[in-house]
Design brief:
By secondary structure, the protein is an all-alpha fold. The chain has 2 helices and no strands.
């Protein structure tokens, strides 16, 4: 199951889940050998720089259009915010609501 690039119909949680799955899969394949680990880490750095640049462009475009309010479904960031500072919420919280709990009060999985 893949999420198409730029598909605004997919939820942020689904996009985040898909991104994490892909990066984890690649990390697991890259970890055993030093050469693949180095290539993976270089790719992560390159991708991080690209995403940072894209985020900066988004913020500049919003500022130039006079957009002062951030939509409720988008992270509240400014041009000085680093991507690692954006709070990531657990996308699976809604799936745990209403689950029966065991005698210790922990949810049964």
């Amino acid at each position: 199951q893949s999420v198409t690039c730029g598909d605004t119909k997919q939820s942020k949680a689904m996009k985040l889940n898909h991104m994490c799955q892909e990066m984890t899969r690649l990390a697991c394949r890259s970890a055993p050998f030093n050469e693949t680990y180095v290539a993976y880490m270089e790719g992560v750095k390159y991708t991080s720089e690209k995403v940072e640049a894209a985020m900066k462009n988004v913020m500049l475009n919003r500022a130039s259009r006079g957009a002062t309010m951030v939509a409720s479904n988008e992270p509240e960031v400014n041009s000085d915010t680093h991507l690692s500072q954006i709070k990531i919420l657990d996308p699976n919280v809604s799936q745990t609501k209403g689950r029966k709990k065991d005698a210790k009060g922990k949810e049964k999985v």
